[in-house]
Amino acid sequence: MRAIQMLGQSRVRLLDDVPKPEPRDGEVLVEVRYVALCGSNIARYRAIGRWGKGPYPAPPGSDGHENIGVVVESRLDGWEPGTLVLAHPEDYCGFADFIRSKPPGLVALPTEGDVASLIAAQPLATVLRAMSRTGPVAGQRCAVVGQGPMGLIFTHLLGRLGARQVIGIDLLAWRLAWARRFGATDVVDASADDPVAAVEALTDGEMVDLSVEAVGYPEPLATAAMLPRRFGRLIVFGVPRYDSQEFPIERVFRREMEIVCSVGGDCVHYFADAVHRMLTGQVDITAMVTPRLPFDQAERAFEMYAGHEEGTLKLVLEL
After folding, report:
1. Which residues in 228-253 are b (16+ Cβ under 10 Å) and which e?
2. Phi, psi (degrees; rounded to nearest 5) at 57
3. Residue 121, pLDDT above cutoff 90
4. For the segment 299-309, what is each residue's pLDDT rounded down to a tens digit?
5. Boundaries of every domain in the chain
6. What is the pTM of this model?
7. Closest CA to 61 of 27, 89, 101
8. pLDDT for the residue 265
9. DSSP the chain
10. Who's near 59: CB < 8 A, 6+ residues apart?
11. From CA 172, how far away is CA 184, in angstroms rounded?
12. What is the number of alpha carbons within 13 Å of residue 292 lying toward its C-beta?
């Protein structure tokens, strides 16, 4: 089968002779139709921080994990060949023609409509998991640092959950336009304005009840930690690029903030809920699934995603 392999800093190649995986008991084999790039892939691609230690070349297909495809072989009762599914690869090697998957990271999808857009249910599930640990946000002030795909999902979901103010913060002006589109009540261009001072002004000095960091670099996390009010909450969501970094602990300590970190494969338990919310219109994030490129343009796709090219949000490779 074909699979993308990361060779080193900003270098990928498309292999065509990788052994096809065999499903184990309780699993299905999925022939992939769509796989999306995730911000967590870019640290390894760019060899940033701890990811730069390798090893390189990485295993073929890693670290792809946002897949839609068709069941072609089943060793799992109730899952017949031909079923279209949102599938989480068991080995996180989803940048490939075939993957192994099993419930709860396996959800049947309708075959009509824009199937590819439902791939956004995977990142939505990770946000639903994070939000399940923060308590209600109805009537509260919120800020989201980073308006890439994950930040946009937070921005949209917070509004849908009843937040009275959602402040989107980013360095890229074109992303702020998307933040408005996805429900931000206010936006801050961090390339031009001090985001902490801007949030203070936008909240009449109250600051926010909930601050989300959705980037993974030291500076955005430090910014996000400066935004909550006393007894406010901070969600650390962006995957850290470094083992240690500076952090405004004095501010966090004096304001007695609650810190929630959310990461990991437990998001599969929210797959079905995420798909349901998208199909019923409770969440409308399909527009962010753009652009879409053929699988054999993987090298170009990684360049676009890592370079934050305008209009590049939840980039999907079509197999």
Report:
1. bbeebbbbbbbebbeeeeeebeeebe
2. -65, 150
3. yes
4. 999 999 999 99
5. 3-123+266-318, 134-261
6. 0.97
7. 89
8. 79
9. --EEEEEETTEEEEES-PPPP---TT-EEEEEEEEE--HHHHHHHHT-GGGGG--SSPPTTTT---EEEEEEEE-STT--TT-EEEE--TTS--SBSEEEE-TTSEEE--SSS-GGGGGGHHHHHHHHHHHTTT---TT-EEEEE--SHHHHHHHHHHHHTT-SEEEEEES-HHHHHHHHHTT-SEEEETTTS-HHHHHHHHTTT--EEEEEE-S-SHHHHHHHHTSEEEEEEEEE-SPPSSS-----HHHHHHTT-EEEE--SGGGGGGHHHHHHHHHTTSS--GGG---EEEGGGHHHHHHHHHTT-TT-SS-EEE-
10. 5, 93
11. 15
12. 15
Residue 51: pLDDT over 90: no
Architecture field, domain 134-261: 3-Layer(aba) Sandwich (3.40)
Q: Which fold has domain 3-123+266-318?
A: Quinone Oxidoreductase; Chain A, domain 1 (3.90.180)
